[in-house]
């Protein structure tokens, strides 16, 4: 029977009990979803060029792949409200990584092996079919979790058919029920599946399996990290593992939970980062690490990234522009979170560089260019007046203690990004950005930086910003909830700098 709270319109103050979180769409009246959809679309902070849910909560990107002439991207979705409830896979597709076609629900929690959520997974193209691997989340009557690794196939009609049985049942001995997020890849004619895990002694790990046919999988072991690896503060659970090779080196991505802050690093509730080393030896399970764990993104809102290799040979990444366990300003309007713009990866000197894919230039509208010389001053560029935009700015001939810019600026608000030359740090400050519900994790992010020039490439949507520094050397991603009239851009220098900047309206 539908509870009374579900019979009316959306109520931001409603109590989300376990029962409410595990209702499915067919359990609520059509009128509820219709009203919620209207309220979300009419509310503030809706994005212009990011993938976002039409209602409810979006989280991890899933199944990122290129199939049948299109890029396919799925995401975790709870449709009934801005909380983590029973998860669906939602499907979008694109010819160009810019314009995304809404293909609706791809998979529902409708079998005995995914009754409590179609959790995260991957897409793998083989024999003109998209093979989908995902974690089926189930609960017993005592609420004990039992994870299953499941397989499904999508054909050219974009319809997904699940296998009747899981391909991997439960978790192996030595692991807890935190065992999820399969990523499938092929090496030398064999298939491997890596899975995020928590060991029985509460350490993060990545388990891996091998298969000859994508159906029958044999457990091997946890990937053994050797070499330049920290012995402590590695977290208790490693979610969303990914592996690929660039420049003849192996890159292992994962999202650890439970890392403690260290200096400027690890200040979000959970992290996402990577290790670089010699190519992973799947025969022995050893990964010889040459570069220690490094955060992928230095901002406030980034998690669970997933990559794919496209037909051009590019390694592309999309992440969740949000975090688990953190409230969102848009919760009050019935929805939460979005995905990042697609990024192209490269490996230079042991570090991943992330650049916005060049296809995003198709979003550009009116351009305004400015040149300025700053000397102990702040200069408001009144011609930079767009609300949503792409901006490129280069600071040269830098002297003094601080250079940077403030955006989404007005009488009451501003978001600042600058180079602190004295401390040799990049600084991202959203303490005055507008509404926020996550101040418990701090309002400033920093990282080391000591370059002669500062290049900022910024994408500002209605309620998010992604900042790429010096051709993708560092990236800062965050949600920004500013008032609609706070749109000014100001450049400043405590010292001297020559600045060239262009803003494209989107």
TrEMBL record:
Gene Ontology cellular component annotations, sorted alphabetically: cytoplasm
PROSITE patterns xref list: GLYCOSYL_HYDROL_F32 (PS00609)
InterPro entries documented for this protein: ConA-like_dom_sf, GH32_Enzymes, Glyco_hydro_32, Glyco_hydro_32_AS, Glyco_hydro_32_C, Glyco_hydro_32_N, Glyco_hydro_beta-prop_sf, Suc6P_hydrolase
Entry keyword set: Carbohydrate metabolism, Cytoplasm, Glycosidase, Hydrolase
Functional pathway: Glycan biosynthesis; sucrose metabolism
EC number annotated for this UniProt entry: 3.2.1.26
Any one GO BP annotation for this protein: sucrose metabolic process
Swiss-Prot/TrEMBL catalytic activity: Hydrolysis of terminal non-reducing beta-D-fructofuranoside residues in beta-D-fructofuranosides
GO terms, molecular function: beta-fructofuranosidase activity
SUPFAM superfamilies noted in UniProt: Arabinanase/levansucrase/invertase, Concanavalin A-like lectins/glucanases
Cellular compartments annotated: Cytoplasm
Record domain Glycosyl hydrolase family 32 C-terminal: where: 359-502
Sequence ranges assigned to domain Glycosyl hydrolase family 32 N-terminal in this UniProt record: 50-356
Biological role stated in the UniProt entry: Enables the bacterium to metabolize sucrose as a sole carbon source.
Protein family membership: Belongs to the glycosyl hydrolase 32 family.
Record-linked NCBIfam families: scrB_fam (TIGR01322)
Database matches in PANTHER family: BETA-FRUCTOSIDASE (PTHR43101:SF1)
Protein name: Sucrose-6-phosphate hydrolase
Origin species: Trichococcus patagoniensis
């Amino acid at each position: 029977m539908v509870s009374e709270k579900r019979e009316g319109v959306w109520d931001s103050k409603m109590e989300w009990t376990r029962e409410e979180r595990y209702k499915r769409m067919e359990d609520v009246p059509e009128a509820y979803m219709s009203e919620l959809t209207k309220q979300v679309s009419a509310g503030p902070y809706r994005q212009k060029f990011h993938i976002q849910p039409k209602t409810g909560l979006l989280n991890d990107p899933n199944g990122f792949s290129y199939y049948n002439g299109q890029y396919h991207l799925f995401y975790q979705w709870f449709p009934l409200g801005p909380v983590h409830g029973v998860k669906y896979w939602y499907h979008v597709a694109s010819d160009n990584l810019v314009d995304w076609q809404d293909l609706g629900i791809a998979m529902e929690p409708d079998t005995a092996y995914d009754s409590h959520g179609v959790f995260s997974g991957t897409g793998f193209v083989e024999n003109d079919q998209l093979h989908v691997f995902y974690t089926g989340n189930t609960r017993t009557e005592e609420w004990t979790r039992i994870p299953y690794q499941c397989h499904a196939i999508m054909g050219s009609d974009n319809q997904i058919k699940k296998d009747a049985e899981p391909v991997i049942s439960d978790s192996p001995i030595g692991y807890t029920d935190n065992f999820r997020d399969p990523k499938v890849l092929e090496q030398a004619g064999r298939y491997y599946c890596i899975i995020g895990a928590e060991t029985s002694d509460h350490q993060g790990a990545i388990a891996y399996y091998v298969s000859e046919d994508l159906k029958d999988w044999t457990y091997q072991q946890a990937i053994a990290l050797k070499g330049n690896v920290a012995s402590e503060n590695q977290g208790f659970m490693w979610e969303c593992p990914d592996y690929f090779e660039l420049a003849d080196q192996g890159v292992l991505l994962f999202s650890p939970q439970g890392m403690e802050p260290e200096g400027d690093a690890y200040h979000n509730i959970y992290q996402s980062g990577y290790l670089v080393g010699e190519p992973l030896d799947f025969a022995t399970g050893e990964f010889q690490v040459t570069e220690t764990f490094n955060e992928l993104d230095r901002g406030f809102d980034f998690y669970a990234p997933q990559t794919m290799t496209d037909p051009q040979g590019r390694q592309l990444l999309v992440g969740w522009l949000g975090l688990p366990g953190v409230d969102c300003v848009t919760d009050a309007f019935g929805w939460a979170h979005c995905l990042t713009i697609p990024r192209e990866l490269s490996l230079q000197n042991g570090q991943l560089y992330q650049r916005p894919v060049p296809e995003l230039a198709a979003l550009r509208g009116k351009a305004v260019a400015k040149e300025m010389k700053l000397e102990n001053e702040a200069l408001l560029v009144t011609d930079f007046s767009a609300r949503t935009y792409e901006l490129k700015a280069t600071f040269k001939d830098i002297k003094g203690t601080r250079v940077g810019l403030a955006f989404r600026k007005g009488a009451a608000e501003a978001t600042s990004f600058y180079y602190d030359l004295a401390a040799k740090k990049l600084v991202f400050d959203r303490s005055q950005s507008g509404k926020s519900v996550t101040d418990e994790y701090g309002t400033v992010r920093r990282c080391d930086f000591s370059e002669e020039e500062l290049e900022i490439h910024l994408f500002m949507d209605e309620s998010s910003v992604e900042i790429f520094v010096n051709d993708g050397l560092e990236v800062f991603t965050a949600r920004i909830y500013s008032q609609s009239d706070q749109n000014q851009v100001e450049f400043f220098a405590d010292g001297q700098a020559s600045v060239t900047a262009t803003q494209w309206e989107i």
